[in-house]
Design goal:
Layout lengths: L8 H9 L5 E7 L5 E3 L20 H5 L12 H7 L4 E5 L4 H11 L6 E5 L2 H10 L5 E5 L6 H7 L4 E5 L5 H9 L3 E5 L4 H10 L3 E2 L4 H9 L2
Parallel strand pairs: 1-3, 3-4, 4-5, 5-6, 6-7, 7-8
Antiparallel strand pairs: 1-2
Helix pairs in contact: 4-5
Protein name: Glycerophosphoryl diester phosphodiesterase
InterPro entries: GP_PDE_dom (IPR030395), PLC-like_Pdiesterase_TIM-brl (IPR017946)
GO molecular function: phosphoric diester hydrolase activity
């Protein structure tokens, strides 16, 4: 999203072209139950429209401009547009059922990790899709985030790097949890991530991928 319209097919294709390892996207349900790819619960910030996603049908959402003429995509379109592994973030707990159905019907359990701020969403998706890989996302958190991840069967933590400590990373690793930090858009943040010994970083900028390869 640092170089293309956020959560659009154009952005995801660019990410794959730039060689990023995994593409993260965000999911909400439209009024008629479509898995809409957008970060916010409303369309105001990233389109020329206004109001909640949940109050519009997919057809109504398609009428909006999501940047540079892009239309709001649905999850199935992203799956078809790129071949890279995906992280699907459930923003709305109600989306877990719909996501599970699509992943099951298209045999996506091996390709798509499901991530969420909502513990209950991760618990639900694991019940619906045994064997799915999940990650707990957290912005404001304490040491108990490791216990929370274990309680819902997550194998990874995706954490706000501004609150991260080496002690917490070590505790997570001791519990066999991978840790990724977000959002890493500068070289200083990348050096911090290296110091923490993170398993990966989330970035909006393709140049961070290149910096990972050429800096120590």
């Amino acid at each position: 999203m640092g170089v293309e319209p956020e959560n659009t097919l154009r952005s995801f294709v660019r990410a794959e072209h730039e060689g990023l390892d995994v593409i993260e996207l965000d999911l909400h349900l439209s009024k008629d139950g479509a898995l809409v790819v957008m970060h916010d619960a409303d369309v105001d910030r990233t389109t020329d429209g206004a109001g909640p996603i949940a109050e519009r049908t997919l057809a109504e959402l398609r009428e909006l401009d999501a940047g540079r003429g892009e239309r709001i995509p649905v999850f199935e379109e992203v799956v078809a547009a790129v071949r890279a592994p995906l992280q699907a973030e459930i923003k709305d707990v109600a989306a877990a059922q719909a996501l599970a159905e699509v992943m099951r019907s298209r045999d996506l359990v091996g390709r798509v990790d499901v991530i969420s701020f909502h513990d209950e969403a991760l618990a639900a998706i694991r019940t619906l899709l045994p064997g799915v890989r999940t990650a707990l996302v957290a912005s404001r958190y304490g040491a108990d985030v490791v216990d929370r991840a274990q309680a819902v069967g997550a194998t990874m933590l995706s954490l706000n790097i501004r609150r991260l400590t080496l002690e917490l990373v070590e505790r997570a690793h001791a519990a066999q949890l991978k840790v990724v930090g977000w959002t890493v858009n500068t070289h200083d943040q990348l050096r911090l991530a290296r110091g923490f010994g993170l398993d990966g970083v989330v970035t909006d900028q393709p140049e961070i991928r290149r910096a990972v390869r050429f800096t120590a």
